[in-house]
């Protein structure tokens, strides 16, 4: 009894605290947990299950309340709407929306095939699989990382290791570009930074810059990372700018370090930080670092425990030092149903593309939170 | 014999039509004569459901279910958006065939919301119904209060006529039979109903309706997640033929209760901090109590000093009812009730009209919830001009009410003439305006507790229905949910559009009495002992008489029904090459059968025939081909199995080593 009430107190304390630290917070419970949250339009996201059996892909319409700036009080609509849904036989570890289409491409994390889905239109709420891209891969059992092409015909860049990175046209399945270099390092993150230039981050932390117009040119930037440490990458791109300094790359290690560099020189860290995190999971599966699209110098880190941490990199230095987060979202550890704070692990998070402090995050218990934290600097004055 | 399950909502008058029914006579897969599966008699019954839904509009619920020849009305709601006849369901399609009392076997009300019970006095006292009306104890207690409250507003304030009177409400309530949770109530010899906990509001129930082996479950409004004062809906694995579920929220994933509450507290807190007043118009019972518990719980922790008032004469009554029906609340309230009544608040005090003019911050809960009359409207008029103040609307407001207008962002309100006249007469000069500036902050918050997509799945998992019927939704937007339900539970899911008829084939198990003699005879024939889990073939005659099914021996059936037995014989010719004389061939057949069919009565008769039980075998041949023998076999219908066996055996020819004698 006493134990319960102390947990309940912690729960209530956070609840009271949340009045002050969030402008808005919405908590949803999916039937099955997701490890993907992908924007499919300004107001819709895709989530999907990752169980070994049958899974669902859902396209959700965000509540109206999040999009009404005037008279927000008059809008009571705070629920997600399932606008489209479909069934997948396999697990969904990776899901990417192809810009300008109603198409998403998924991979199950265990083989190299890419599933292509049509999200459906107004007249039907069913998501249908429209094709499979059967691909050869050297280490397919680790699954494939996907990056949607940003310009031209719908295409996807994909690979399971650096050597098998390939650009494939979606409609024909025709390969448009392949790297063809024998670098067996496993791929952890892949992203276009312009119409043809892409960044690839290997699990060992090495960064590669490739250009789909130039199959032979691949620039390697070894991280000199420690053995046994897993790395992933978050990239901030400004497609309107050709200035290489505007493209910031943050690499997150399983040892909870973040190294930031930019396209001018990916070898030398601009600044870095040791994060103060007590890992609650030994798996590196959910590690994620992302740049805020509408907030300068801010990045979000998750995947080590039940929290999402926001850091302001403005104060970071070239030397490795420990820095405190600007904001911590603890919501996933304060579940309504079970007060078990130890098992909660955040599976993924994404930023709202235009609202500076709005983040969506998901956890292993199936919870999905949409939160908008209060900026202490502006709130106090 | 023919049974049907029919559902129909008595909704928009234009949509009212008689449900098409498919009365089917029972058809058995196997004829009795050729042996039927005893434990697996199939009976085809068509069920048609006719529904006209209200979409996402908060309309009224009124569904008619016909099951096994019984007609049951589920809910009798009032449409709050209309001020004329359209607010009540149109019963004329029933009444043009006779009185409601003759047509309906009973009426069941799921909960006390007026869109589910508001037309009850109209139906029973003005249209005329004298049969039983079932509702739970809390609904029975609260329903008349809300009806009277609404009647006062409509008749006394708005001056409407052609509305039910106080006496009618009283007379109507006399027809109510209270329901207890999980108690099976026998409406008549065949019709029984049972209530299950639905969450949603105090006393809300789901109801199972059963006639014979057929059943329908109607959910009403339900909630699968417990809240601060109520528990979650629950039902046992009752496997109804049809589960009729509300699906207004079927495609939503609900934001958590906690975030809704957080928003509410945040708004109240902000307003009080800046010295403003908060008005919360509420229904007297339900959401009000929940929000009171919420404020009470956090007022001290948030270090709040501002007074909270509950402004209604119904406070005591409301608390009285919650105390009375403590078993209907959630576990936490029930548990703490022993030490402290959760509804006796430390921080929340009774309101007096004069307090509204007091300076400084305060929070007031006032009725009615839609701001269409009464105390909440009076307070609103006083506070509306100050932008520091706030009004929080915790529920839906129907068109035409002040609540509805301000939720639509209307900043200048023209008061209804009649209302204004009354107000001018009643109020001191200066506090009333013909038009009112709305400067205070308006917040709309929905606290309604309905099941979302996940909740519907949970309920299906619990009840395991054979068919699912989603009402009040938009079919085009629920194709995925339908697929999901059909795949996950391998059942059919129907989403009838307005005016659409759905036919559901059900396979109820039909009990058949079997005569002891027949059973004994079957036992005597050997084989394994009867196992209820394994179907077994047996012979008998099915008699359908006096609403019962009996399987008896053919002899008994003939005797009972006074019929003569018809003899049915099968004959068959088998050609055989056997270079012997006809009598020798017959002898050889006799010897052969004697060796093959041990334990059967086989006779070689002097008239030149061989008889195996009732089967007669003769041999003939033509003069041209003396070696081509034609065997004539003839047997009675009763020995069909043996006869078929013999003809097959003899077609294979006779073994060569047979002696002729």
Write the layout of secondary structure elements.
The complex is a heterodimer of chains A (381) and B (661).
Chain A lengths: L1 H20 E8 L8 E2 L4 E5 L6 E7 L18 E9 L5 E4 L5 E5 L6 E5 L9 E6 L11 E4 L6 E5 L6 E4 L5 E4 L8 E6 L4 E6 L4 E5 L6 E4 L9 E6 L11 E6 L3 E6 L8 E5 L12 E4 L6 E5 L5 E5 L8 E3 L3 E3 L16 E6 L6 E6 L3 E7 L2 H5 L1
Parallel strand pairs in A: 21-25
Antiparallel strand pairs in A: 1-29, 2-3, 3-4, 4-5, 6-7, 7-8, 8-9, 10-11, 11-12, 12-13, 14-15, 15-16, 16-17, 18-19, 19-20, 20-21, 22-23, 23-24, 24-26, 27-28, 28-29
Chain B lengths: L4 E5 L26 E2 L7 E7 L11 E5 L2 E5 L17 H4 L4 H4 L2 E3 L5 H4 L2 H9 L4 E4 H21 L8 H9 L1 E4 L4 E3 L4 E7 L7 E7 L2 E5 L23 E5 L5 E2 L3 H17 L3 E5 L5 H13 L8 E4 L2 H11 L6 H7 L10 E3 L11 E5 L7 H10 L6 E4 L8 H6 L4 E3 L2 H10 L8 E3 L3 E4 L8 H11 L3 E5 L7 H11 L2 E3 L5 E7 L6 E2 L1 H9 L12 E2 L2 E5 L2 E5 L1 H8 L7 E9 L4 H15 L5 E4 L3 E4 L2 E7 L6 E9 L3 H12 L10
Parallel strand pairs in B: 1-3, 5-6, 6-7, 7-8, 12-13, 13-23, 15-18, 15-19, 16-17, 16-18, 19-22, 23-24, 26-29
Antiparallel strand pairs in B: 1-4, 2-27, 3-25, 4-5, 9-10, 10-11, 11-12, 20-21, 28-29, 30-34, 31-32, 32-33, 33-34
Helix pairs in contact in B: 4-6, 5-6
Cofactor (chain B): Zn(2+)
Pfam family, one (chain B): IntS11_C
Protein name (chain B): Integrator complex subunit 11
Task: List the keywords.
heterodimer; A: 381 residues; mainly beta; four-stranded antiparallel sheet; 7% helix; 40% strand; B: 661 residues; alpha/beta; eight-stranded mixed sheet; 19 helices; 24% strand; WD40_repeat_dom_sf (chain A); WD40/YVTN_repeat-like_dom_sf (chain A); WD repeat (chain A); Wdr73 (chain A); WD repeat domain 73 (chain A)
Give your account of this protein's structure.
The complex is a heterodimer of chains A (381) and B (661). Chain A is mostly beta strands. Helix content of chain A is 7%, strand content 40%. Chain A is built from two helices and 29 strands. In chain A, the strands form seven sheets. Chain A has a five-stranded mixed sheet with strand order 18-19-20-21-25, with no helix packed on it. Chain A has a four-stranded antiparallel sheet with strand order 1-29-28-27. In chain A, strand 6 and strand 7 (103-107) form a beta hairpin. Chain B has 661 residues and is α/β, with parallel strands linked by helices. Helices cover 29% and strands 24% of the residues of chain B. Chain B has 19 helices and 34 strands. In chain B, the strands form seven sheets. An eight-stranded mixed sheet of chain B has the order 8-7-6-5-4-1-3-25. Chain B is elongated, with a radius of gyration of 37 Å. Chain B starts with a strand and ends in a 10-residue tail after the last helix. Mean pLDDT of chain B is 79; it is low at 1-58 and 417-433. Chains A and B meet through helix 1, strand 1 and strand 5 of A and strand 14, helix 7, strand 22, helix 14 and helix 15 of B. Strand 5 (80-88) of chain A pairs antiparallel with strand 14 (252-253) of chain B, so a sheet runs across the interface.
């Amino acid at each position: 009894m006493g134990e319960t009430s102390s947990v309940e107190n912690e729960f209530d304390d956070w609840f009271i605290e949340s009045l002050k630290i969030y402008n808005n917070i919405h908590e949803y419970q999916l039937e099955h947990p997701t490890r993907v949250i992908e924007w499919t339009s300004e107001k819709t996201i895709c989530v999907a299950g990752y169980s070994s059996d049958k899974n669902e892909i859902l396209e959700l319409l965000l509540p109206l309340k999040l999009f009404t700036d005037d008279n927000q009080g008059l809008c009571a609509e705070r629920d997600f709407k399932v606008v489209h849904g479909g069934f997948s036989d396999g697990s969904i570890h990776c899901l990417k929306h192809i810009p300008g289409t109603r198409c998403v491409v998924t991979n199950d994390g265990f083989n190299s095939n890419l599933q292509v889905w049509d999200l459906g239109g107004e007249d039907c709420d069913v998501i249908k699989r429209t094709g499979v891209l059967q691909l050869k891969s050297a280490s397919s059992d680790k699954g494939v990382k996907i990056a949607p092409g940003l310009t031209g015909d719908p295409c996807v860049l994909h690979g399971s290791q650096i050597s098998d990175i390939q650009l494939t046209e979606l409609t024909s399945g025709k390969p448009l570009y392949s790297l063809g270099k024998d670098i067996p390092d496993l791929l952890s993150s892949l992203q276009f930074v312009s119409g043809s230039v892409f960044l690839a981050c290997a699990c060992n932390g090495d960064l590669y810059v490739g250009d789909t117009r130039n199959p032979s040119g691949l620039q390697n930037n070894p991280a000199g990372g420690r053995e046994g440490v897993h790395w992933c990458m978050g990239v901030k791109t400004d497609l309107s700018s050709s200035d290489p300094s505007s493209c910031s790359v943050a690499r997150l290690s399983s040892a909870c370090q973040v190294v930031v560099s930019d396209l001018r020189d990916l070898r030398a860290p601009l600044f870095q930080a040791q994060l103060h995190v007590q890992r609650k999971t030994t798996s590196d599966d959910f590690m994620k670092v992302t740049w805020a699209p509408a907030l300068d110098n801010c990045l979000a880190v998750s995947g080590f425990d039940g929290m999402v941490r926001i850091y302001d990199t403005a104060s970071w230095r070239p030397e490795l030092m420990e820095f405190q987060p600007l904001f911590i979202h603890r919501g996933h550890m304060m579940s309504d149903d079970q007060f078990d704070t130890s098992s909660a692990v955040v599976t993924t998070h994404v930023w709202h593309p235009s609202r500076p402090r709005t983040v969506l995050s998901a956890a292993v218990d199936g919870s999905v939170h949409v939160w908008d934290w209060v900026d202490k600097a502006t709130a106090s004055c | 014999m023919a049974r049907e399950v029919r559902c129909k909502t008595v909704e928009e008058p234009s949509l009212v039509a008689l449900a098409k029914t498919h009365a089917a006579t029972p058809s058995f897969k196997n004829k009795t004569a050729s042996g039927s599966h005893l434990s697996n008699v199939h009976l085809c019954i068509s069920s048609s459901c006719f529904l006209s839904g209200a979409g996402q509009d908060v309309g009224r619920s009124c569904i008619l279910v016909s099951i096994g020849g019984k007609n049951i009305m589920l809910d009798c709601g009032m449409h709050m958006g209309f001020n004329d006849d359209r607010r009540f369901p149109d019963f004329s399609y029933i009444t043009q065939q006779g009185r409601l009392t003759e047509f309906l076997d009973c009426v069941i009300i799921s909960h006390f919301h007026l869109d589910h019970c508001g037309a009850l006095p109209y139906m029973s006292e003005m249209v005329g119904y004298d049969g039983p009306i079932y509702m739970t104890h809390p609904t029975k207690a609260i329903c008349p209060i809300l009806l009277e409250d609404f009647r006062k507003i409509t008749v006394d304030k708005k001056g409407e006529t052609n509305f039910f009177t106080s006496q009618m409400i009283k007379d109507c309530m006399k027809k109510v039979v209270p329901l207890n949770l999980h108690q099976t109530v026998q409406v008549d010899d065949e019709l029984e109903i049972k209530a299950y906990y639905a969450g949603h509001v105090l006393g809300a129930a789901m109801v199972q309706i059963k006639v014979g082996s057929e059943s329908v479950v109607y959910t009403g409004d339900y909630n699968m997640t417990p809240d601060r004062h109520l528990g979650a809906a629950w039902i046992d694995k009752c496997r109804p033929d049809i589960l009729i579920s509300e699906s207004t929220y079927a495609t939503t994933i609900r934001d958590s209760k906690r975030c809704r509450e957080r928003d509410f507290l945040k708004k109240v807190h902000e307003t009080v901090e800046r010295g403003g007043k908060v008005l919360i118009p509420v229904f007297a019972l339900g959401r009000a109590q929940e929000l009171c518990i919420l404020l009470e719980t956090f007022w001290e922790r948030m270090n709040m000093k501002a007074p909270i008032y509950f402004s209604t004469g119904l406070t005591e009554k409301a608390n009285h009812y919650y105390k009375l029906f403590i078993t209907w609340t959630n576990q936490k309230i029930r548990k703490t009730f022993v030490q402290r009544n959760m509804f006796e608040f430390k921080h929340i005090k009774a309101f007096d009209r004069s307090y509204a003019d007091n300076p400084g911050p305060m929070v007031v809960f006032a009725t009615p919830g839609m701001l269409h009359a009464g105390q909440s409207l009076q307070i609103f008029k006083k506070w509306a001009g100050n932008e520091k103040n706030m009004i929080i609307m915790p529920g839906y407001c129907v068109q035409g009410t002040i609540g509805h207008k301000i939720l639509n962002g209307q900043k200048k309100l023209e008061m209804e003439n009649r209302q204004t006249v009354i107000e001018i007469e009643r109020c001191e000069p200066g506090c009333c305006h013909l038009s009112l500036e709305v400067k205070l902050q308006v917040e709309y918050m929905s606290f309604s507790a309905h099941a979302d997509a996940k909740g519907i799945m949970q309920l299906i998992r619990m009840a395991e229905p054979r068919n699912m019927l989603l009402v009040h939704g938009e079919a085009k937007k629920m194709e995925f949910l339908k697929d999901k339900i059909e795949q996950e539970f391998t059942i059919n899911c129907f989403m009838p559009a307005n005016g659409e008829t759905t036919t559901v084939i059900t396979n109820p198990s039909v009990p058949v009495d079997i005569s002891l003699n027949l059973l004994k005879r079957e036992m005597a024939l050997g084989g394994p002992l009867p196992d209820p889990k394994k179907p077994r073939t047996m012979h008998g005659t099915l008699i359908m008489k006096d609403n019962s099914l009996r399987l008896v021996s053919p002899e008994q059936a003939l005797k009972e029904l006074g019929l003569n037995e018809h003899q049915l014989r099968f004959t068959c010719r088998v050609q055989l090459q056997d270079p012997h004389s006809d009598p020798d061939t017959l002898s050889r057949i006799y010897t052969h059968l004697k060796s093959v069919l041990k334990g059967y009565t086989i006779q070689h008769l002097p008239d030149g025939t061989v008889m195996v039980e009732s089967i007669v075998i003769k041999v003939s041949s033509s003069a041209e081909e003396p070696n081509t023998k034609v065997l004539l076999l003839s047997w009675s219908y009763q020995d069909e199995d043996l006869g078929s066996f013999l003809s097959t055996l003899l077609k294979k020819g006779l073994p060569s080593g047979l002696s002729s004698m």
